[in-house]
Amino acid sequence: MDSDQSVVDPAVTATADDIAAMRIRGAATIADAAAAALATQAERSDAATPAAFERDLRAGARELYETRPTAVSLPNALRYVLRGMEGETVSALRSSTIDAAETFRAELEQAQSKLGEIGANRLRDGDVVMTHCHSTDALACIEAALESGTAVEAIIKETRPRKQGHITAQRLRELGVPVTLIVDNAARRYLDETDHVLVGADSIAADGSVINKIGTSGLAVNARERGVPVMVAAQTIKLHPDTMTGQTVAIEMRAETEVLSADERTAIGGDADEMPPLRVENPAFDVTPPRYVDAIVTERGQFPPESIVTLMRELFGETTAEPWDG
Ligand SMILES: O=P(O)(O)OC[C@H]1O[C@H](OP(=O)(O)O)[C@H](O)[C@@H]1O
């Protein structure tokens, strides 16, 4: 039987759509949702043979994989679950896959709280933290600091074009943190009042480069110039194994309409024949070189970015073919 006959459960397709449209967003949340979707596929699959079951799972994983290209937590989650799919019968394959997904999701949650405790050690009572975008790993550090009685304040960058800074503002206010919301262009001015820049990551490369929301690299360069340390909170599922063999991380380009509405496009000349063409580019992420990062905080400890490759080798070893390509 060929792969055309695979059956992907509608719930997997719905999760893939939600990830692509960013109704589910943030690297850790995407990984969690993808693992949950594979568990649902395993539960609901009515494949008659082990081969058909495995084919359906791989097809579901491929559909999830193809949604967003930059956050490596997504393929890392899919790999973990598919590598846990073991057994000679459909029933054994089903239960091992569901178990692998549950274990992955539990470890994800534990890793984030452990990371939070480690990151909180870098924060002192009264510190002002500047954030970019919305990262649950970064917020875990602040939450752990608050739990241990360390009060902090936050300066939150709006984070155009999708304004995920608003989510960070809401979450931190719910935790009782005083918040100052600024537009992205004001960041350098407010670095004078900042003790730490704290961001998350979508992928970390073997050389210690941090791939995170567009604008992170400019913020980090400015922070270095002002002497403000840059702390990256990233669970080890953000480590990108393929970069150990020199592969670069794909930067997702998103829709023009996130930047410029159809009405705005018309207002500045639209596509009128007498006007030169207008191109809008909307990269979702950028790359911050390791020299602008002071520490990468993971659940395994905090690392200078240049030494992260040691942890990557320990966790991933040699890279192999993707399980959904089988
Ligand atoms: O895993 P956590 O720390 O929650 O988020 C990590 C990163 O994911 C987000 O990407 P997007 O908003 O999905 O494009 C941001 O870039 C954020 O820093």
From TrEMBL:
It comes from Natrialba asiatica (strain ATCC 700177 / DSM 12278 / JCM 9576 / FERM P-10747 / NBRC 102637 / 172P1). Substrate binds at R25, G26, A27, A28, R68, N212, K213, K238. Keywords: Carbohydrate metabolism, Initiation factor, Isomerase, Protein biosynthesis. One of its GO terms (molecular function) is S-methyl-5-thioribose-1-phosphate isomerase activity. It is an enzyme of class 5 (isomerase). Reaction proceeds via a cis-phosphoenolate intermediate. NCBIfam families: eIF-2B_rel, ribulose_e2b2. Pfam families: IF-2B. Catalyzes the isomerization of ribose 1,5-bisphosphate (R15P) to ribulose 1,5-bisphosphate (RuBP). GO terms for biological process: L-methionine salvage from methylthioadenosine; pentose catabolic process. This is Ribose 1,5-bisphosphate isomerase. Its EC number is 5.3.1.29. Belongs to the eIF-2B alpha/beta/delta subunits family. R15P isomerase subfamily. It catalyses: alpha-D-ribose 1,5-bisphosphate = D-ribulose 1,5-bisphosphate. The active site is at C133, D202.
